[in-house]
Design goal:
Distance between the termini: 55 Å
Order of helices and strands: HHH
Number of strands: 0
Oligomer: single chain
Number of helices: 3
Strand content: under 5%
Helix content: 55-70%
């Protein structure tokens, strides 16, 4: 196998089906987790979108948007700034 051009893990319909089902399930759990204290909603959403982003352009754009906003919130939090103007 060529070092510069690694072979993808799966290219068939089974791999695509698995990514779509797993990604959709994780996004669904993430949405539920936004309202339940036991689940990490944002984490499930990001992982689910990363799986779906390989199959859908819309999911890819949404994944990029969530990651950029998450980074922005994290930098505000580390600085001690308030995101909504309230401390």
């Amino acid at each position: 196998m060529d070092q510069d051009n690694p072979k993808p893990l799966r290219q068939g319909w089974m791999g695509r089906w698995f990514r779509i089902v797993a990604g959709s399930t994780l996004v669904g759990l993430g949405i539920i987790g936004l309202f339940l204290p036991l689940l990490q909603g944002v984490l499930f959403i990001v992982i689910g979108l990363s799986l779906l982003s390989t199959e859908s352009e819309r999911a890819r754009r949404l994944h990029q948007w969530v990651r950029s906003h998450w980074r922005e919130l994290r930098t505000h939090r580390e600085k001690g700034d308030s995101v909504h103007g309230v401390r």
